[in-house]
Amino acid sequence: xxxxxxxxxxxxxxxxxxxxxxxxxxxxxxxxxxxxxxxxxxxxxxxxxxxxxxxxxxxxxxxxxxxxxxxxxxxxxxxxxxxxxxxxxxxxxxxxxxxxxxxxxxxxxxxxxxxxxxxxxxxxxxxxxxxxxxxxxxxxxxxxxxxxxxxxxxxxxxxxxxxxxxxxxxxxxxxxxxxxxxxxxxxxxxxxxxxxxxxxxxxxxxxxxxxxxxxxxxxxxxxxxxxxxxxxxxxxxxxxxxxxxxxxxxxxxxxxxxxxxxxxxxxxxxxxxxxxxxxxxxxxxxxxxxxxxxxxxxxxxxxxxxxxxxxxxxxxxxxxxxxxxxxxxxxxxxxxxxxxxxxxxxxxxxxxxxxxxxxxxxxxxxxxxxxxxxxxxxxxxxxxxxxxxxxxxxxxxxxxxxxxxxxxxxxxxxxxxxxxxxxxxxxxxxxxxxxxxxxxxxxxxxxxxxxxxxxxxxxxxxxxxxxxxxxxxxx
Length: 475
Prior knowledge:
This protein has helices spanning about 1-40, 70-105, 110-115, 125-145, 200-210, 230, 240, 315-320, 330-345, 385-390, 395-405, 410-420, 435-455, and strands spanning about 150-155, 165, 170-175, 220-225, 245, 250-255, 270, 275-280, 290-295, 350-355, 395, 465. By secondary structure, it is an alpha+beta fold. The radius of gyration is 26 Å and the shape is globular.
């Protein structure tokens, strides 16, 4: 009698789960129907924004981004199929769980002595999380680009002007105004720590990080901001207000207060009222999600005459490998991933990085503050790759992604061009010039060659390749 009752209760729970997941299918359908409209960022009154969110064939689209209704239907059909496959997989897992419990009971095991039933989620379960993540990213980008601004304060610290912008829902974003034209290169006589912070570099870094599969740069979107209505009229920073003026040609300008380039000679000016800038999502408050700042082992000296230790010692990595937190876990390969990202976009200003304290050493690095990237397309800085060259260690997933982006059909410059075309500021002008896009392909070849040189220097590939995704097919 008890056995029949248990079977009925299990069957009832199974059917309730099926009904529950069916309701979720309806919710997913509604979310997708909304996301197709919400992911298309609203345009400003004075510019027409035509942006496609179809990223399935982004690498193949090298000239224009088209949003066809047939592509949308195919995506929805594919998502529906995957959802039903997920449903079948969960039912299979439930049956497997029941059978395992029956076997455990027959063998004399219980939750108390076996620690309960545990199973690793299938890859299909990851799909539903991805759908939710995509919708959140769309909503976040939509907020950054079109939500009304209610406050503007100059951010303390740092060397150059940046503003903390507030939204009606108490959210905040970091605004970096345009300081340099896209076609301009960094002056060769400037040191890396004196370079401008570029708004388009922040945006491009977010897209490049996503293309490389790291996804460690907080969302960044370009936005046009009215200097008077959206900064001066809503700020409570009296020191910032005193720096506003009108240029001889009638443009609204301001310069703020900072260590570098905060003067009338380097003022931020509208055309005549609106300025371009990058809007970056702020990280959670430290009281809610404490973070720790780490000094990079490959930090530069930030001196005009001195060299850092890693620049003088070719065996520098040997000591780093035995120093916490780089002596265990994935912290070292995380740092090398970051160095590859920095080399591709020519960012020499990586002095610190941050992690969330909650996860201890089993965490990830946050790749933010990339404003000094993409300064020069005519020159590659090999010293940025020092962590990779000296440690000869890299994730297999990173290597496979780099190989993929080196193929003609998935060329990095083409994928990057297509991805950047989704940003609202792309209708004003391409966020990266063709010279910068070509430099990405050139630097990618350098990274792949460096990894293959490491493989030739070591007898076993496992000494170089950090195995993180299964059987390695070969070097």
